[in-house]
Design a protein that fits this description.
With about 350 residues, the protein is α/β, with parallel strands linked by helices. It has helices at about 10-25, 50-55, 95-105, 170-175, 210-215, 220-230, 230-235, 280-300, 310-325, 330-335, 340-350, and strands at about 5-10, 30, 45, 65-75, 80-90, 110-115, 120, 125-130, 130-135, 135-140, 160-165, 180-185, 190-195, 200-210, 250-255, 265. Bound molecules: flavin-adenine dinucleotide. Flavin-adenine dinucleotide binds near residues 10, 34, 147, 206 and 283.
């Protein structure tokens, strides 16, 4: 049966969009290229609005194995600052969250085909690895991966590389990050560290291509360089066990991208806007944009003229520039001196 809407990609944005469409009686097919849920390069920090968007779909981070996070700590060089988060946040494993979201879409009537990659999108449907699928509309929700002919870019976009690894910290260090998300800035990027399910910690970092080149173009070299430049992170990781054979990596991440329409398929999530990830709001944007796109499709409306997260992305871009260069340590020291600065910044970069 020809779907009304084909959703290319079954990450948080695609699943949220499909759930909202199917809930309104729209015939939806989700094509997700991975055959099974898996880890993705992500800090796994779910902000307050992200948690609210999950709750609206009947999902509870605690029941999905989430670990509560209530404080934020930032560091650069020897400078550090910390504050309570202005919302209740979670550390939530992406494999569990993404699977639960696709289940929620299925429960509302969406058809989900795993192991099906979309190769090319046109006005009347898409070419997939299993042949052509015609559809009334196509939603581009392929996240970190671009579909041929629809490459993201633009002025001011910074192409980053991401690494992620789960670690077993030394017990004293694990206690030090109990309920805390830490952001360690280094020249050319940042590393995020927070507790994860099962007594582990999630380490996720993003670095510029130049930082990767300086470190000898290997994930291990980059990690070693980051530990030299971020003494606070080196202290946390001293004596840590690394249960994964190697970190997960993703390249070509267009930080600061905001789609400038019109034309082409309906975009959601990272295919619509990419907020620099130390903000920890990409998942919330994915969930929100998926739901908003569904509302407009149901109403027969074209995509919104202005991306509703453009302001937050612009602010995060400024902070990204500041914290990835020599001004990082003074900026962090200032945040330590001005009470309320960190929570205000956290609030100003959220989905509204
Ligand atoms: C280093 C790093 C750290 C981050 N940390 C955080 C954080 O702590 N908190 C936060 O909120 N956000 C974080 N983010 C951002 C967050 O990961 C993304 O914003 C979010 O995953 C976007 O969701 P999405 O559904 O748009 O894309 P994705 O999560 O990338 O999902 C896209 C889906 O589409 C599938 N797909 C791809 N290509 C195809 C294809 N051709 N055909 C079919 N299926 C396809 C993929 O398999 C995937 O399942 C981080 C990002 C990075 C890079």
């Amino acid at each position: 049966v020809r779907p009304d809407v084909l959703v290319a990609g079954g990450g948080p944005a695609g699943a949220a969009c499909a759930a909202a469409l199917a809930g309104a009686g729209v015939r939806v097919l989700v094509a997700e290229r991975t055959p099974a849920p898996r880890q993705t390069v992500c800090g796994e920090f779910l902000s307050g609005e992200g948690a609210a968007a999950l709750a609206a779909l009947g999902l509870d981070p605690a029941r999905l194995g989430g670990v509560p996070v209530s404080r934020v700590r930032i560091a650069a060089g020897r400078a550090a600052a910390e504050a309570d988060l202005p919302f209740a946040a979670w550390s939530l494993a992406r494999d569990a969250m993404d699977a639960a979201l696709l289940d929620a879409a299925r429960a509302r009537g969406a058809e989900v085909r795993r192991g099906l990659a979309v190769r090319r999108i046109d006005g009347a449907g898409a070419e997939t690895a299993a042949g052509r699928i015609d559809a009334g509309a196509v939603v581009l929700a392929t996240g970190k991966h671009d579909v041929r002919g629809l490459r993201r870019g633009g002025r001011g976009v910074r192409t980053m590389l991401g690494l992620k690894e789960h670690l077993e910290l030394d017990p004293a260090q694990a206690r030090a990050i109990d309920g805390v998300v830490e952001v360690h800035f280094f020249p050319g990027g940042y590393a995020g560290l927070q507790p994860a399910a099962g007594g582990l910690a999630n380490l996720c970092l993003a670095a510029t291509g130049a930082a990767f080149d300086r470190a000898g173009r290997s994930p291990e070299g980059l990690l070693a360089a980051v530990l030299r430049d971020a003494p606070g992170l080196a202290a946390r990781l001293a004596g840590a066990r690394r249960p994964w054979p190697r970190p997960l990596a993703a390249a070509g991440l267009p930080y600061g991208f905001v789609h400038a329409g019109p034309g082409g398929p309906v975009r959601v999530g990272d295919q619509l806007a990419v907020i620099p990830s130390f903000c920890g709001d990409g998942m919330a944007i994915a969930l929100d944009s998926g739901r908003r796109a569904a509302t407009r499709l149901i109403g027969g409306l074209p995509p919104e003229g202005r991306v509703p997260y453009a302001g937050q992305v612009a602010l995060a871009r400024l902070v990204d520039r500041l914290t990835s260069g020599p001004a990082a340590a003074p900026a962090v020291a200032l945040a330590g001196l001005v009470p309320g600065l960190l929570p205000s910044l956290a609030r100003a970069t959220r989905v509204r």
